Amino acid sequence: MRRTAANAVLMVLVAVLAATPARAQLYPEPNRVGIYFDTGATTNWATRPAFHSSTAYLVLTHPTGAGYGITAFECRLALPANTVLMGVQLPPQSINVETLPDLAVGLAVPLPWSSAVVLATITYYASNTAPGSWTLAPVQPYQSIPNAMVFGTEDINRGYAYVMQASHVPAAVVNPDLTFTVDVQPDASQGAWHLSGPGGYVCDARGDSTFIDLPFGSYTITWAANGTWAPPAPATATRTHDQWSGACVFSGAFQQRVQVVITVQPAGLAAPWFLLGPDGFWLQGTGDRTLAGIAPGSYTVMWAPLAPWHTPDPSSATLTAPVGETITFAGVYHTPAAVAGAAEVLRLLPARPNPFNPRTTIRFELPEAASVRLEIFDLAGRRVTTLVAANLPAGPHEATWDGTGRRGGAAPSGNYIARLTAGAQVRSMGMQLLR
Are the beta carbons of 346 and 365 closer than 8 angstroms? Predict the structure, then answer.
């Protein structure tokens, strides 16, 4: 359709707007326009089978100028790609209409005011059941107000025109994808989760799940550890389930954890040790211990002195735990009689205090005179500072670390390793700085 000669109403609208500044209501005032699937403007999404005729409505809600009938309106209507337009029915008093997709309509008799005014009835069918979005935009190029959809009322001769705000972008959707899925990977993990949503909705389950007819709104999932399986990171996620966003999918990849076994010999000996691991893992214990369900990665055990026993040699060990595997640290303590006649060994005694703030004292015993280095490292293997670098006689010695680095700056809170080197012998132990 093209503009007819009887386009007086719209021409009057344009002329009035050119002569008198239009009074445009800005967002978030009323004057919302949208595509709905009912005349009351309550439903702007629908499920439709393919190749079946359906009806939608162009509705202006709560128009400004209560009591004044609507005499003209302008907007551009864009249909979903898979929707075929069968016809647009305008009010019978329409006297001039711009060719679709533009609707620039003048009315000989004003539409009566109401909270939901039906401007047009649209007949269509969908060529398939795929989701499709309707959109609204200003008429091009015949805009009464640039970049705005607009309508006029019976008081238009006084220069009143009003902006129509789109009710939603997209204005409507046909056959929305309302799939709601919790996808747990791998299937063998049977990962546990807690789902919460609008209206107090909660669900606790394991593994994969698919939901239908869940209410629209914001949902949050919290993943939980399941035996030796670690939860996904981050541990929580939030998604919006509505007709606009498409499928709502929560996908969580669980990671199988490892097992670390610490054994002390002789059996039953409550010998102390420290265990350092990935991501700042730190644990202090005694005797035999089995740690299940912890993160994969590299672990270091440091055996601590226990009088009158001699500490295992070497005094520390590092092993890498692959996903799903078990690693074992074995520490063998010897009595003085067992090493009688043997060469004395280098001893690095536990730091006191530990944890500490801001300083701690490290004691060590040299079996003979030696060139000695006592250094502090962080868990990434970077040297923080050197406390001792000298030739020392046999016997007991000590050094104090004040928690600063080589350049005098304060070291951050965390776990550190003290490494003592005397000749060919090396000893290490862990310390924790708490600011």
Answer: yes
| Of 16, 24, 11, the residue nearest 156 (C-alpha) | 16
If you write DSSP's letter for every residue of 4-73 in order, what string do you get? -S--HHHHHHHHHHHHS---PPPTTSS-EEEEESSTTS---EE---BT-EEEEEEEEES-SSTTPPEEEE
DSSP β-ladder status, 289-294 and 132-137: unpaired
| Token pair for 387 | 């406390």
pLDDT of residue 344: 65
Q: Which amino acid is at 392?
A: L
Q: What is 140-172 written as a DSSP string? A: SS--SSTT-EEEEETTGGGT-EEEEEESSSSSE
Instruction: Tell me how crowded residue 145 is: count the other CB atoms within 10 A of its CB.
Output: 15
Q: For the sheet with 192-196, list strands across it.
A: 202-206, 192-196, 217-224, 236-241
What value does the mean pLDDT take over residues 392-405? 93
CB neighbours of residue 4 within 10 Å: 10
Span 221-247, average pLDDT: 89
380 Cα distance to chain centroid: 28
Helix (H, G, I), strand (E, B) or coil at 129: coil
The type of residue at 431 is M
141 upstream amide cis, omega within 30 of 0: yes
* Res 42 pLDDT > 70: yes
76 and 101 Cβ atoms separated by less than 8 Å: yes
Give the integer Cα–Cα distance in Å for 269 and 330.
12
Q: How far apart are CA 305 and CA 429, in angstroms?
A: 10
Determine how many CB atoms are found less than 10 A away from the CB of residue 239: 15
- What's the start-to-end Cα distance of the chain, in Å? 78
CA dihedral 262, 264, 270, 274 (to 10 degrees): -40
Enter the pTM of the model: 0.55
